[in-house]
Amino acid sequence: MISEKINSMKRFFNDNNTKDVDFRIEQLKKLKKIILENEEYLMTALKRDLNKSFFESFETEIGFVIKELSYIIKKLKKWSKPKKVRTSVINFYGKSYVNYEPYGVSLVISPWNYPFQLTVSPIIGSIAAGNCTAVKVSEHSPNMSEALAKIINENFDENYLHVFQGEAGVAKELLEKKFDYIFFTGSTVVGQKVMEAASKNLTPVTLELGGKSPCIVDDTVNLSTTAKRIVWGKFINAGQTCIAPDYLFIHNNIKNQLIEEIIKTINDFYKEDPKKSQYYPSIITEKHFDRLVSLIENQEILYGGEHLRKDKYIQPTLLDSPDKNSKVMQEEIFGPILPIYGYEDIDEVIDFVKSRPKPLALYLFSKDRKLQDKVNKEISFGGGTFNDTLMHIGNIELPFGGVGDSGIGQYHGKYSFETFSHKKSVLKKSFWPDLKFRYPPYKSLWLLKKIFK
């Protein structure tokens, strides 16, 4: 069935059905209309999968995608036009262009933590570029997977855009097929397997992975605002966010004060019993719950630690200076657990971060511009925000993606369109003039050297 479906998509693409820009814009408008019509249905699915409040569902998933759709619909005609570039003198009377063309049939494999946003956002890029798109949604967020399959498969030509559900075996079978582009969001371990499968067909990939994103706080900050922004960024979606702060370094001058402020903020946000809060999500599966609980065993807990397996609930938890070789500091946490360290010398923090795989995100809280420049220049990371958390992902003008172990490639806004487009170079020349010195027998090396200066 999968082979037949992919072959049908290839035939549909080869008939040039998707290349017209007006067609693409109409498909994007249709997608936006369907999302708006099913807004409550989609947010209910998120509530059932992750216990997300409707506010958080709209803020981090539905609204994010609607905004991106509106932006790309507005800009797509301009982006799609061939871009004229400078032509060198050796091609006198020639004109050079970069043309954006779709790859063909793309495969999008999406995760469970933001199962709407991280599925639909790559689809938008694939549609905008003119591709047909096969989508494998996560089996770990079954309600959203079913909702996406329903609203997409019932409204789009199955040869153009189709959602596949099922266990990991479905993704494995899809990866055995020859696609023209693969876009994967998930863990680094699985990303390696995706890249290995893609390499067999020399298929280009974008890998949006994860890693341990550091958060650094110096002693120049506003304590209250800093605490609110760290708690929000860490515990939104119960910490199940690829760019959430994974561990925290606080200057010793303010460490105890900021920890107190963080605890106060957690209580302000979720009350003293977060499991009763309508604004605090649950852990996605019991398996993921068990892994997270194992990370806090035998650790010194500053705050939190309560957990209930039947509710897939883990209280926001702060750890005091865990061993840097322990599991909680070796694995991406992906949950509501925050290791906290003090520091005296920023160079020691920088050296520590650089000794680890390059992170997907980095956060620095400081009023010191020189320190901001130093951290920005000395540490490689996918993207980040200074004096806040997560917010760089919300700027549609910024590319989003990792570096090194945290990912390959970037997307959002124009970068999504470019990611799913092949940049085809075309030089258009006149039959006149036809410079004879370029042909054998060669006689004018001096002229050639002059031209190439």
From TrEMBL:
A Pfam family the protein falls into: Aldedh
Active site (UniProt): E208, C242
One GO biological process term: aldehyde metabolic process
Domain Aldehyde dehydrogenase intervals: 6-426
Entry annotated with the keyword NAD: yes
Family: Belongs to the aldehyde dehydrogenase family.
GO terms of molecular function: aldehyde dehydrogenase (NAD+) activity
Entry protein name: Aldehyde dehydrogenase
